[in-house]
Specification:
The protein has 224 residues and is of the alpha+beta class. The strands form 3 sheets. It has a 4-stranded antiparallel β-sheet. A 4-stranded antiparallel β-sheet has the order 2-7-4-5. Helix 6 packs across helix 7 and helix 7 packs across helix 8.
Length: 224
Amino acid sequence: MAQEHNLAFLKRVPLLASLSEAQLETLAASTVRRNFAKGRTIVAEGDSSQALYYLLSGRAKVQRTDAEGKEVILAVLGAGEFFGEMSLIDDEPRSASVVTLSSCDFLAIGKESFTELMMASKEICMAVMRGLVVRLREADRKIETLALLDVYGRVARVLLDFSEDIDGEKVVPMKVPRQEIAKMIGASREMVSRVMKGLELDGFIVPLGNGRLALRDKIRSYLH
């Protein structure tokens, strides 16, 4: 029964769309579906890599921690994204930790199965490469944001990245803790709180309740 459920989930994974039914069935036998509560560490920086993780639902943050315990959030992952492939490719320890921001469902594909997939399908190789390129471009954009924008611009960028188009307007559909924003942009929580208050008073953001925010188009002016 577990294998049948795994097969059903694998068929929904765009990364695996090029695989045949037989290949998916073989993969399903060695794939594990797991659920993690909010605040759980899925992989830890410095650990050896044993699996590729595909996020079915929920949100998770990718972070690094320095010797003094200071955390920096490198990215936030959502449903449909995967992680762990870099360490599987180069056999180096994991470069960052991944921690859940909400309850998350994952598919874990073991190292041996991942290697076989890469060898069997050039389409999967290309999909993994595209994923790596997307992350490289995102890292470039993050560096540019930190280097060229003031703290208002950095906060605006984070809010826009978290937003979704709902009924014709940009809406941040869930509460994004001030501390998490601070870790993304290299500022203090207090500074982020002041900036958020200023954006609200000036009409750039409008609280909708339960942590949700509507973003007015003029907030993009902070990105220039």
